[in-house]
Amino acid sequence: MNSRLAGVCRSIILLICLSMASLIVSQIKPVSGSTSHDPISITDNSGFTAGNGVTGGSGTADDPYVIEGWTIDSSSTPGILIQSTDAYFTIRGVSIQTSYGINGTVFIGVEHGSLEDSQVQSRCEGGSNSALWISVSYDVLLQGNSLSCQGDYGLALDSSDSLTISGNTINGGAFGMRADSISNTSITGNVVAGEDSMYLTDLSSILISDNQLLESSGGIGISACDNLDIENNSMGRHIDSLFIANCGNVLVSRNNFPRQEHAITLASTDNSLIQDNNITHSIFLGLWLSPDSTSNEITGNNIVYNHCGVYGPLETLEQNTFYNNTFGSNDSDFCTDSWTTFHQNPLHTGQSPAVGPSTPVLRWKFQTGGSILSSPAIAFGTIYVGSEDGNLYALNPQGLLEWKFATGGAIDSSPSVGQDGTVYVGSQDGYLYAIRSDGQLKWSFKTGSTIASSPTVGSDGTVYVGSFDGHLYAINADGTLKWASPASAELYGSPAIASDGTIYVGIDDPPPSGECGQCLEAISTNGTVEWGSATGQVEYASPTIGPDGTIYIGSTRSLFSAVNPDGTTKWTVTGSAPEIFGSTAGMGSDGTVYVTSSQVSCDSYPPGCDGGGNSTTRLYAMGPDGTVLWTFSVTSSVTGSQIFCCLYYTVSSPAVDTNGIIYMGSVDGNMYAVNPDGTIAWQVSLGGAIGSSPTIDFDGTIYVGSSDGNLYALGSS
Questions:
Q1: Looking at residue 638, what is its pLDDT?
Q2: E strand map for 93-209
Q3: Which residues, 6 or more positions from 511, have their beta carbon under 8 angstroms from its beta carbon?
Q4: What is the pLDDT of residue 673?
């Protein structure tokens, strides 16, 4: 099942599943009137004898061999093994029990067989055993059986064709049913339980209908399929109820998905019909469309009372057809990816399409091996964040590690996620890394020095990133260099991309003067510098582009500037020296500009800095004309042991939700929510100074890193 969406609920749900397993196991009793028999092993047609439990029949279609009425208890071999046969046979009314690590019943290379009205219990545990295993077989009927495996698979199928699986009760530990490479098969009217109820791969011409899937972590997980019908199934509560990946020509119709965490997921699936399903009360997502899921029809579905009715990248939603669906009482009918790059979008507006928590609670925290200055990115249900320990971490929404990728240096860069799910991040080892969504390296690109800049992905897939070697790099999606534009000094911040494709970057102080005359640069799509603006030295701040094209950027020289698209200065706000505008500005929907500054006073300065001092973080609200509407300030003590010592200043950039609430981190270790009028809405104390910028997920959860090495998730109570 989809590992990225399994969460802390899994252990709870697993306990429920195990309780169900115990109930099902306790119901397995010898068939009435049955007689004990040794394990049966038939390895070709000649093995159908009375000594092997055959009670009648001649092996033809009209008169199959019958094995009936036996109780078999085995500690070393399968209760029944039938292999390499093409005679017709029927096994019915048998009761089989095997010890730990032993398959209950095995069919290999079987044609024209059936297992009916029987009970098979295997005490399989911790491997790949099953109550019933069918391999390389054809024309097999399973009907009215009770199949139970406490630890592994209730029913395992592989490389088989023309199976009929009907009216069975199937219980497994890891999987109720596990299948690989099956075709022309119907799975109907079964009751299935397991940590994942069904996990099926490499399918062709399969019908899955009228089944009842009991509550578990995963419902039906399917990958690599064609011509698949999933109809009229009743789903217990799952984390992922129906997950379909890399498929085409799938019909999902008249299924009931009540109270799931995620009801239906289509990943890289096309030309499919999602019709007349009941998708209600999903905790997170009703229907999730991942990238490359195109040309699907979604029609006639009842999509109500979900947190998010339909979720996916905007480009993906536009490539699918929606009509005649009923939407109602969802928190949002349609949701797009909430935060795939630094400060939410290539314009760096920090503007969220969601509402943050009104009464925050700590949902979880995840400990990395170093401080976190990197700001999280969120895409396709996964949270990505870098750490000073040199690793990029991928976490699911419950805070569990999916994978981590090691680079050769600390990661201050914030990751950015492309439309195909590729994750881009820079490292102090000087490389830009492109990492697949499964955590494997796609490619790396070497620059001449440290990368603290956060990459930004253009609409054509070009990746833009700055380096301390004084260049802005444009890198093609395949990892080859498109161009490198020389700047006058180190590039810390993240490039912003305007709607016309112009790239804006801030420039640090160059050697030997320590002053840059043109610290904001506009660069064309071919790498040519169009103009430079004297905004003052820029370090961590990145440009923000307003709705009218105005570029906003802060400076370490107590300046915050608004620059017109032609490079002329629109207005400047001057703080009180040595006030530093080190963050990236956020934008309100009404055009209000929000930016944080720091003002530090110390008893002594580096290299000693032993005396400590005070640091004031100040949030400014400015009108589009540069009028300061209000400020909100907090002051904290700074000691020599903290990052940047007495020169430590706020680089955490404010995020703004759809209600206009502004969220900011501070050197004092607190997350603050500030109302649009400048009054405080709430504050939460975290474990260390906050240099990471907060991100807001579509469900309102705030993710932010801290100098204590934790990534924190703050949600609503």
A1: 58
A2: 95-98, 105-116, 119-122, 130-135, 138-143, 146-149, 153-166, 169-171, 175-188, 191-193, 196-209
A3: 489
A4: 97
% of the chain surpassing 70 pLDDT: 89
Question: Which phi-psi region, left, alpha or beta, contains residue 464 (left: φ > 0; alpha: ψ -120 to 50)?
Answer: beta
Answer positive or negative: Cα dihedral of 655, 659, 660, 666: negative
Predicted local distance difference test score (pLDDT) of residue 600: 64
Q: What does residue 52 show for φ and ψ, rounded to 5 degrees?
A: -100, 25
> What is residue 102's predicted lDDT score, i.e. its pLDDT?
87
CA–CA gap between residue 543 and residue 350 (Å, rounded):
11
Q: Residue 411 is which amino acid?
A: I
Q: Quick one: pLDDT band at residue 239, thresholds 50, 70, 90?
A: confident
Helix (H, G, I), strand (E, B) or coil at 675: coil
Q: Which DSSP letter does residue 453 get? A: S
| CB distance 216 to 236 below 8 Å | yes
Q: What is the pLDDT of residue 601?
A: 57
Q: How deeply is 464 buried, as exposed, middle or buried, from its count of CB atoms within 10 A (0-12, 13-18, 19+)?
A: buried
Name which of 147-156, 637-646, 662-671 the model is least confident about: 637-646
357 preceded by a cis bond (ω within 30 of 0): no
Buried residues in 539-555 as b, exposed as e (16+ CB within 10 A): bbbbbbbbeeebbbbbb
Instruction: Extract the tokens encoding 646.
Output: 């007495």
Phi-psi region of 512 (alpha: psi -120 to 50; beta: other; left: phi over 0): alpha
pTM of the model: 0.68
The H or E element that residue 522 is part of is strand 520-523
CA separation for the pair 509, 425 (Å, rounded): 24
Task: Tell me the C-alpha distance between 409 and 643, whole Å.
Answer: 17
CA distances from 499 to 58, 269, 502, 549, 591 (A): 77, 30, 7, 8, 17
Please enumerate in sequence order all residues whose Cβ is within 8 A of that of 48, keeping only pairs 6 or more positions apart, or say none: 42, 54, 59, 65, 85, 87, 89
How much is the pLDDT for 291?
74
Token pair of 417, please?
């996620």
| Cβ atoms of residues 300 and 325 within 8 Å | yes
Give how far Cα 248 sits from Cα of 204, 285, 294, 295, 310, Å: 10, 22, 10, 10, 20
The tokens for 422 are 């590729």
CA atoms within 13 A of residue 443's CA, in its CB half-sphere: 10
DSSP state of 427: -
Reported in sequence order, the residue ranges of 254-390 that DSSP labels E, i.e. its strands, are 256-258, 262-267, 273-275, 278-280, 285-289, 297-299, 302-304, 308-311, 321-323, 326-328, 332-335, 360-367, 377-379, 382-386
Q: Tell me which long-range contacts 402-410 makes (C-beta under 8 A, separation of at least 24).
A: 402/3, 402/4, 402/439, 403/438, 403/439, 404/439, 405/433, 405/435, 405/439, 405/441, 407/431, 407/433, 409/450, 410/370
pLDDT at 330 over 90: no
- Sign of the dihedral through C-alpha 140, 145, 149, 153: positive
Q: Minimal CA–CA distance to 258: which of 234, 240, 276?
A: 234
Characterise 139 by phi-psi region: left (phi > 0), alpha (psi -120 to 50), beta (else): left
CA distance 365 to 598: 27
pLDDT at 407: 97
